[in-house]
Design brief:
Length: 249
C-alpha cells in the first residue's frame, strides 16, 4: 500500500529569524564568559600555588640560615673572671654559650621591595606554618606586594617582645595563608619563632572579633606591659577584617 506523506510548509518569518539570531548570540556569549571564568579560576589557583611555594621556599631558606648561624655562634662562650690563683692571675669560669644572631638578611621581592624574614608563625590546630616578612618602608604598596608571598608584619615592636606585634595575611578561602585563622577560638595556641634570637614563644588566643577595614584600633600598643600578637585577615566577602588576639603564655 502506498502511503502519501503530507508535510506542511514551514514559513520562517522575520521575527523567527531575529529570535534565532538572538539565541545564537546569547549562546556564543555564554560560552565565551564560561571560558573566561574557567581561565580566571585556573589562573587564580596557579597564583595561589605559586605564592604557597614561594612562601615555603622563603621559610626553608630562613631556617637553613638560622641553623648555619647557630652552628657558627655556638663557639662563642661567655666567661666570668672570678677565680684567683696563687700567683694572682684570674682563671675564666665558663657560664654558658650563646647562639644569638641579631642580624637579619635583607632580600628583595620580584618587584624590588626590600624585606627581612622576622620569624615564623606556626598554628598547629589549622596546619599553618609560614615565614613572617617585614618590609623596609611599611608602605601600602610594599605590604600588598609582600602579602602575595607570605604573612607580613603590619605594626608593632620587635618580634616576641613587650607590646602588640601585628601580623596580616591573605584569606584565600581555602587552607592557604590565613584562610583558616577565623576558625580559631579562645584557648588555641599560636607559636611565634624569632629567627634572629632563635627562640619560640607560645601565645594563647583570648579574643576574636570583626571590624571595618578603616578601624585599626587593634594595633594599639597599650598592652599593660604584656607580650601580645594580633592576627588580621579579611572576612570571606572582604567587607570586614577578622581580628584574632593572643597573649604570651
Amino acid at each position: 500500500m502506498n502511503q502519501i506523506l503530507v508535510t506542511k510548509k514551514l514559513y520562517i518569518t522575520p521575527e523567527l529569524k531575529r529570535k534565532k539570531k538572538v539565541y545564537k548570540v546569547n549562546f556564543i556569549l555564554s560560552v565565551f564568559f564560561l571560558i573566561v571564568l574557567i581561565s580566571v579560576y585556573i589562573y587564580a589557583a596557579y597564583d595561589r600555588d605559586k605564592a604557597e611555594a614561594m612562601s615555603q621556599d622563603i621559610l626553608a631558606n630562613a631556617e637553613t640560615e638560622q641553623e648555619d648561624n647557630t652552628v657558627v655562634d655556638s663557639d662563642i662562650l661567655i666567661a666570668v673572671l672570678n677565680d684567683t690563683t696563687d700567683d694572682g692571675t684570674e682563671t675564666p669560669v665558663i657560664v654558658s654559650n650563646t647562639n644569638q644572631n641579631t642580624t637579619k638578611t635583607k632580600q628583595q621581592s620580584q618587584s624590588g621591595y626590600t624585606y627581612v624574614t622576622d620569624g615564623k608563625i606556626t598554628i598547629p590546630k589549622i596546619n599553618v606554618e609560614y615565614p613572617i616578612l617585614d618590609g623596609e618602608t611599611d608602605s601600602e604598596a610594599e605590604t600588598e606586594e609582600l602579602l602575595k608571598m607570605s604573612p607580613v608584619k603590619f605594626h608593632g615592636p620587635e618580634i616576641n617582645t613587650v607590646g602588640n606585634y601585628c601580623i596580616v595575611g591573605h584569606n584565600y578561602r581555602n587552607s592557604r595563608f590565613f584562610s583558616k585563622v577565623p576558625t580559631l577560638v579562645n584557648g588555641d595556641i599560636i607559636q611565634i619563632t624569632d629567627f634572629a634570637n632563635n627562640n619560640t614563644v607560645e601565645y594563647e588566643v583570648y579574643d576574636k572579633y570583626t571590624v571595618v577595614p578603616e578601624d585599626v584600633s587593634c594595633t594599639s600598643q597599650n598592652t599593660d606591659g604584656r607580650t601580645e600578637i594580633t592576627l588580621i585577615t579579611c572576612t570571606d566577602d572582604s567587607s570586614q577584617r577578622w581580628i584574632i588576639k593572643a597573649r604570651a603564655i
